[in-house]
Amino acid sequence: MVRPSKAQRDQTLIETRRRLLDAAAVAFACEGYASANINRISLDAGFAKGTIYNYFDSKRALLLALIDEVAAAHIQMITAQVEIETDSTRRLEQFFRAGFEFVEQNPDRARVMINLIYGPDEELRKYVYRVYQPLFDLLIYNIVGAGIQQGAFHSPDPNVASALIMTIYLGSCSQLNADGKIWLDPSQIMAFVLNGLRGNHG
Which structural domain, as residue segments, surrounds residue 106? Predict the structure, then answer.
């Protein structure tokens, strides 16, 4: 019998971990973190009960790994699109466009993150904010701050403006319908934010 190579074993471990995270995302999104059953997650992923403990020490460790995975992919997708542009207005548009696209492509993962942000567990909420800090920094320095320097935006404090933009973005992302689509019009959201940054309050 031919034994699998190290590369094959490593690939199997990666694939198993991915399937467990996929099943966890569905369970946490549909049932909530507190109600989700870790053995059911293993079964839904196609593995025996207890398999999950070969990869994660606990249900909380599984959730934290999911948060890390979602945040990394979310930030990477937005950053890649933002950095294509040099104009701050176009960068802000790409921030929203890529962000909404990620959410609609990953509705279960998005629901998990939104539920944690607006949920009762302060420790988990702080953890989410911490792993998403690079996205907030992108807003402050590469979009809003750059826009103020370019004269495109008018704001006395890029930190406050960025916090408001992030609040609007997260609130919009929370408006997912049953099909995993954001029912608010992204173009209207972007127009609203741009009007505020440009000082057009009329």
Answer: 58-198
